[in-house]
Design brief:
7-stranded mixed sheet; 256 residues; Rossmann fold; alpha/beta
Length: 256
Amino acid sequence: MTAPTHSARAHSFNAAAAQYAANRPSYPPALLDAIEDLAGRPLHGARVADIGAGTGIATALLRARGAEVIAVEPGSGMAAEFRRAHPDVPLVRGDGNHLPLASASVDLLTYAQSWHWTDPARSVPEALRVLRPGGALALWWNMGAADVPWIAEAGARQAAHFGIDIEAYKKRDTHPEVADPEGRLGLTPRTLRWSRRIPVDTHLANLGSHSMFLTDTEKRRTAFLTAEREHLLKAFPDGIVEETYDVDLLVARTNS
């Protein structure tokens, strides 16, 4: 099977936006605390642009902290789901490589699960352009905790299915030197662990909402998820899965 292109994977979410919104994990309150700590300012009252906002999972948390948020999302399907769920939040179409925002217009730029869809050669200068002096850029990803045995075993099954090292594949974007190859931002990393307990079918729907599965053939995807359900029910006979995540956070502050 030919590997899907980066563009095909990026656009795959639009046909599965409702599935994404219903099943993807959110983020723990400690993440917002860490962002405030590393950014050196409270979210309350901050002008925030949430880039690659998707269905609004992170946007909702930022607003709950009192931030004034504008969302930026390139995908038509994701944008439609966002507008359905958050009709009162300003949303503009665009992406991190070409931000539809005025220069020096925001206190904080956030990229929840979305920086890896950008080209840092373009997205870094764009971030620096739109941030106000003393502003901050925050990038983060929910990553399955590979030291948890059942997650490691599930990762190995995915690796075999796709013919890749899944954990290495997932981690490739979460390190400062990969997120900012030219070192212009001075990113500070922090990792936070959290978990959620959900039904097996919710876990499988979450898994199926990832681009590698969305761009797989229906036959291969169905076969894998059916077999995976059997594996999971052996590990979790009560049908409730505990997903454990490490949130990999990178934050950079601009000069005042």
